[in-house]
Structure formats: C-alpha cells, structure tokens
Amino acid sequence: MDHTTFPRINSTTQHSSVSLCPSPATLIFLPLAYTLLFLTALPGNVLSLWVFHRRISNVSPINVYLSHLSVSNLILSLTTPFLAAYYGWGTVWTFRGFLCQFALHAITPILHINIYIGLMILTWVAFSRFVSLMQHTHASRPSACLALMPSSLTTCIKKVSFARGVCAAVWLVNIGAIVPVTVVYSVKEAMNANSTESEEEVCYNPTVEVGGSTSAAFNLSAIAIFYACYALVLLSYMTVLRHIRRSRRSTHVATSLSLLGRVLRNMVVIQIVLSVCLLPYHIFKPIFIYLAFKQAEVTPGYGIYCHPLSGMVEVKNSLLLLAALRGSTDPVMYFMLDKRFRKQTLKLIAKEQNMSGSVRWSVTGGAAAQPGQQRECTRTTANSSHESTF
C-alpha cells in the first residue's frame, strides 16, 4: 500500500480482468514481519519515552530530538497491526468496505508522515552534532563550514527551546504536506478510478498499489527531499573525517580526540540507519514510478489476469517494510547516540535484575539480609540517587 496512485493499465472494460496476484511474500511474509515489528517497536519506544521523560531531569537538545523521534516511532508502530491485516486480507476486503477505507484514509498517511518525520529529525541530529563539533574543537585552522552558517544558528542550536521549535516545525511540515495529498488527491483518484468497477472490487488492487498521476509530483518531491537529507548527513560525515585528520596534526587536540570519536561514531550510526532502512526504498521508488507510467501506455491483450507489475509491487512493499523497520531499530540507536540515555537504561536493567534476584531469594526461603548487607544496600541506593541528579 502506498500514499500515491498512478494510472492503471487501460481504462477500457478489459481492465476489469487485470488484478494483482499476491504471492506468499505478501500474504504470509509481510503480515508476519509487521507483527514482529509491532512486538519489538512498541515496547522499545515506550521504554525510550519513559527514560527520556522520567529518568533524565536535565533536558538537552539531543534529548528533545530523540524524544520526538520516539513519539513518531511509537505512532508508526501502532499502524503495523493494520498493515499486517491489510497484506494478509486485502485480497478479501472490498474496496468500499470500512477496513479498506480506514487503511487508505488513516493508516497510509500516518505511516508516511512518521517515516519522513524520522528522516528529518535524524538529519537534524547529525547536522546539529556536526555544528557543535565545529564550534568546540579546533584544528590547525578554523573550519570554513562555520563561516557559511548564520551566527544566530550556531548560537540557537544549543538551546532546548530551539530544539522544540525545530521538532514542531518538522511535524507541521510533514502533516501539512502529506495529509492533503494522501487523503484529498490520492484517495479521491482511487475512488474515481473504482467508481465504475464492481462493488466487489478488492482492496488490494492496481488502483491502490500501482495506480495516479495527481500526486506523482509530490512523490518525486519526497524522494528529492530524502536525497537532500541523505547528502547532508553524508557531507557532515565526510567533513568530520577531514576535521579529525587535521586535528591529529594539531598540538591542541589532547582533550578533543574523544569528542571527535564520539561525534564520528554518531554520524556513522545515523548514516547506516538511513542507508539500510530508507535508501533502498528511495532508490527503487523512482524506478517503480517510471515502470508504472510506461505500463499505463500499454494496452493489455484479452485474457490477461495478473497485472504485469504484480512482482514489482511486492518488491516496493517489501522495501517499504524496511523503511518502517527503523521504528524498531531506533531505540538501539538512542543507546549509542545519547550517553545519559545509555546510562539510565543500563541502570534500569541492573535494577530489574537485582529485583528479580531478590524475589528468587525470598521465594526460596532465604534468610533476611545481615546488618552489613543492609548497610551495603543502603549505600548503593544512596549512590544511585546521587548519580541520578547529574
């Protein structure tokens, strides 16, 4: 299921004999994969939000960005059960039925909104880390990159209020751009295209998966935005690498090499996430658009049942799954990007293990703790409380 539609093959009555022929990849693999994604993404992002809002008292801009990213991923994870149902039973649902219309009007825009919110926030995290690095480390000569940026930007980028404003702008831009195109144009095209079809037209059909030209321009614009974000992260990564090489030749880098290494690692993590999860979909999607328009110009012969692009549709949907997979992998990325998030998560895990050990000891009839042990436990608790204030 996609957020755009393209012209279906031939508008004659012959087209009623052409339908998508889903393979086990669509009927079995995609529902199972989206179910697994739901079971991993939901608890992972709930835990992330709890750590950001309950365990970290001194909020920093990076905490704001990752917190909004967790909210976006949590919303995305809530769409995955419906996507699993769509791919499993979309060939049974009728196009005009409630479940199909709910998938088109609600699930599709929510999915794509949160995919691109994640893309923009990750890009801004990489860029803000890059700017902070350029401000606080000095190589043999100042970086020319800072000279190209407004001085107000380099000042505001450290403020929590500015980070919240950036996140609010990202949400507004994506919702304002995707909802009208998805709901007003794409769905309207799909309804018009199926207005002459039988009432028993299934939900998983060429109109929804292959089918419209009205929103094609937006679709190409979204692809262009992805490549612009991807190029910005890649450029930041290459600049940091060059900055590290220059810093190693400087005489004033003793205290900055560890910082350089951390920023470089963060850049690598973000680059890998974008390359593995989002890049394949955005490479294939322009190819799919081109094939859809070329196929629309071909008049099918009599007796054709399976749509010629049935296999390509399944490839597109599999790559869309890969893009949605980022919602499950991001909590691991937070663990690598944010030191305080990592520290608080490890403390929670250790606490759970200690509680589990205490329960097992009491259940097996263990004796009460000795006075020395009680003092040690009190000392550990006090130290943990002291550490949580920093």
Structure description:
This is G protein-coupled receptor 82. It comes from Neogobius melanostomus (round goby). GO terms for molecular function: G protein-coupled receptor activity. InterPro entries: GPCR_Rhodpsn (IPR000276), GPCR_Rhodpsn_7TM (IPR017452), GPR82 (IPR042804). Helices cover 75% and strands 0% of the residues. With 390 residues, the protein is an all-alpha fold. The protein has one domain (13-346, 365-388): Rhodopsin 7-helix transmembrane proteins (Rhopdopsin 7-helix transmembrane proteins, Up-down Bundle). α9 packs antiparallel against α11 (326-337).
- Poorly predicted ranges (pLDDT <50, ≥5 residues)? 4-16, 299-303, 367-390
Tally the helices. Answer: 13
CATH topology title:
Rhopdopsin 7-helix transmembrane proteins
Question: What is the structural class?
Answer: mainly alpha
Question: CATH homologous superfamily - what is it?
Answer: Rhodopsin 7-helix transmembrane proteins
Q: State the total count of DSSP E strands.
A: 0
Work out the radius of gyration: 26 Å
The best one-word shape is globular
The main pleated sheet reads as: none
How many individual domains?
1
Mean pLDDT: 78
Order of SSEs: HHHHHHHHHHHHH
Helix percent reads: over 70%
C-alpha termini separation:
46 Å
CATH class: Mainly Alpha
